[in-house]
């Protein structure tokens, strides 16, 4: 006599992916004129933030005659717990995929970024045939003496106070996570180490924007950058009225103007 088949248990409901905050959706911009049809600038946002923090910069570059792509980096734009579960290699890989995608579409690709995005831009410039790199206060070292301890602290201290809104302009606001995941800080440390190692490989021109005051990235990061760029032409542009998040600060017009000039110089051939 055949035994009845055991009842089939229903599969557990799928956990929906966390919704991306609409202000941080990826951005694609067409050039403001036909002059930039064969070039694209990939703009990378910083840690715990998103495309909104670099949108005005990206729009200014696009208005000067370039296609612009602003990807949302993995772990960002949703909740800080998602960033805590995101590894350095996943973030670095997403940047390289974004650059590779534009390299198939355009003759010239420029990578640009702020803070962690600046470190990622430099990392990409060392491993992809980009025409130039433009970085704003790139984070190659931590200001906090506790940050290097993040890998050991993360299991016991899941998050700490936010690091956003280091801005001189009192009317500006950076939309970022309300907490900083300590595991995410550990991932940034790995991104920094990879970027530092890669600096001597970069041969494309690098434009470095440096704010007069910066509570997030120390002067040691800037010194590390200049020492490491042994083969690349380097242009350092001071931002005298801005703090760390210069893409939302008083010197934004200068940042846009000089970024446009750097893109034009690197892609006119």
Automatic annotation (TrEMBL):
The record marks 163 as: Important for substrate specificity. This is Carboxylesterase. The keyword Hydrolase applies. It comes from the Bacteria. Substrate binds at residues 47, 116. The keyword Hydrolase applies. InterPro entries: AB_hydrolase_fold, Esterase_lipase, Hydrolase_4. Residues 1-20 are annotated as: Disordered. One of its GO terms (molecular function) is carboxylesterase activity. Residues 1-16 have a biased composition (Pro residues). The active site is at 115 (nucleophile), 214 (charge relay system), 244 (charge relay system). Its EC number is 3.1.1.1. Gene3D superfamilies: alpha/beta hydrolase (3.40.50.1820). It comes from Micrococcus endophyticus.
């Amino acid at each position: 006599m055949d035994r009845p088949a055991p009842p089939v248990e229903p599969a557990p409901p799928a956990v929906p992916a966390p919704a991306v905050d609409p202000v941080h959706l990826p951005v694609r911009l067409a050039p403001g004129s036909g002059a930039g049809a064969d070039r694209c600038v990939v703009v990378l946002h910083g840690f715990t933030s998103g495309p909104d923090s670099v949108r005005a910069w990206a729009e200014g570059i696009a208005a000067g005659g370039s296609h612009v792509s602003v990807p949302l980096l993995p772990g960002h734009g949703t909740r800080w717990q998602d960033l805590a579960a995101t590894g350095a290699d996943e973030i670095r890989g997403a940047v390289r995929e974004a650059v590779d995608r534009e390299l198939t579409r355009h003759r010239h690709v420029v990578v640009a970024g702020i803070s962690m995005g600046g470190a990622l831009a430099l990392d990409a410039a060392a491993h992809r045939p980009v025409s130039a790199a433009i970085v704003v206060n790139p984070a190659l070292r931590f200001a906090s003496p506790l940050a290097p301890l993040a890998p050991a602290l993360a299991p016991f201290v899941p998050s700490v106070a936010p690091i956003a809104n280091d801005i001189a302009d009192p009317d500006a606001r950076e939309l970022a996570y309300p907490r900083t995941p300590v595991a995410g800080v550990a991932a940034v440390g790995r991104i920094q180490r990879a970027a530092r190692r890669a600096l001597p490989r970069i041969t494309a021109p690098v434009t470095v924007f440096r704010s007069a005051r910066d509570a997030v990235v120390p002067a040691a990061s800037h010194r590390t950058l200049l020492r490491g760029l042994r083969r690349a032409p380097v242009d350092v542009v001071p931002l005298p009225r801005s703090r760390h998040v210069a893409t939302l600060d008083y010197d934004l017009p200068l940042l846009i103007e000089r970024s446009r000039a750097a893109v034009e110089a690197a892609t006119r051939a």
